[in-house]
Amino acid sequence: MKKFKRRSARMNRMHYRVLVRRYFKQIFTSLGTFLPLLLQAPVMLAIVYLVCVKDAFTHKNAEYLTSANVVLFVLVVMCALMGILNSYREICKERDVLSREVFGGLDISAYVLSKFTVLSVIGIVQCGILFGGTLLFIDFAFPAPATGYLCAYGAMALTNISTMAVGLFISALLKKSESAILPVLFIIIEQVVFCDSLFSLDGAAGLFRYITPSAWGIAVFGNAAGLNDWAPMLFHKELFALNPLVGLGVLAVFTLLFVFLTTLRLKRLYRQKD
Predict the structure, then answer these.
(1) Residue 4 above 60 pLDDT?
(2) Are residues 57 and 135 in contact, defined by beta-carbon separation less than 8 angstroms?
(3) What do you get for the CA distance between the two ends of the chain, in Å?
C-alpha cells in the first residue's frame, strides 16, 4: 500500500469530506435507513413516559431513590443501545465496496472518521430528542441547573458515541453483519448488567463497571442530580461521587480508543492484501 502511505493530508481531507456527504445522502435518500433512525428516539421516549415515575427527582428522599435510578438507567442505557445498533453493520455491510475503493486509493483513516462523524451527528440528534422530550414530563430538579442539564445531556450523548465506536470496531472485525449478533448481544448485556444502577456489583463483578460506558454515563447523570446526597446512610455510589468531568473524560477515552482500533484493524487488513 505504498501509494496509500504517501497520500497528502490535503487528499485525505478531501476523501473525508466526500465520504461524509455520501453517507448523509445515503441516509436521507433511503427510506429503509432513514425511517428507523428517525423513529428510534421517539419510540424510546414513549417507553420512558410509560415506565418512569414523573416526579422521581422532585422529592429527593430515600423513598424515590429507586425510581430516580430507574430513570437514569433507562435514559442512559437506551442511548447506549442506539449507539451500538446504529453502527454494528456499517463497515461489514460495505466490505466488498470498501476493498475496491481502498485499492483505488481511498484513505482508511478518512473512511473511519467519516463513518464516525456521521454516526456521531445522528447519535447527538437522537439523544437530544430523547433528553429534550423527557424534560417535558420529568423535572430533574438539578441542584446546579446551569451545569446539571449540560452534564446530563453530555453523559447521554457520549455514552451513545462511545458505544457507537465499539460497534464500528465490531463491524471492522467481521465480514458479515449476521456474525455480529453474538458480540452485539454481549455488549448490550454488559451495558445493562454492569451499569452499576439496577444491580449491586461486588467483588470481581464490580470491576466490569469501569469498562462499561453506560456505568460512566449514569455516574455523570447521577452526580448532576445529586443522588448521593438524598440518603447518605442508605445510598452511596463511588462513581457518582466523582467529578462529572472524570466520567465524561473516560467516555471520550473509550471513544478515541475504539476509533483508533477500528482504523488500525482496517489498515492491517488491507496491508495484508497488498
Answers:
(1) no
(2) no
(3) 6
- pLDDT of the residue at 2: 37
Q: How far apart are CA 79 and CA 86, in angstroms?
A: 11
Specify the pLDDT at position 249: 97
User: For 232, which DSSP code?
Assistant: T
Secondary-structure breakdown of the chain: helix, strand, coil percentages, each rounded to the nearest 5: 75, 0, 25
- Our CA angle for 97, 164, 192, nearest 5°, is 135
Cell of 16: 473525508
Higher pLDDT: 105 or 190? It is 190
Return d(Cα 206, Cα 189) in angstroms, integer.
15
Give the helix/strand (H/E) hosting 48.
helix 31-51
Measured CA to CA in angstroms, residue 274 lies from 6, 64, 69, 108, 182 at distances of 15, 61, 52, 14, 31
Please state the φ and ψ torsions of residue 223, each to the nearest 5 degrees: -65, -45
What cell was used for 137? 414530563
Cell matching residue 68? 430516580
CB 246 within 8 A of CB 181: no
125 in helix, strand or coil?
A: helix
pLDDT of residue 104: 82
Residues 138 and 71: their CA atoms lie apart, in Å, by 9
Q: pTM value?
A: 0.92
The sign one gets for the Cα dihedral 244, 248, 249, 251 is positive
Q: Give 64's DSSP letter.
A: G
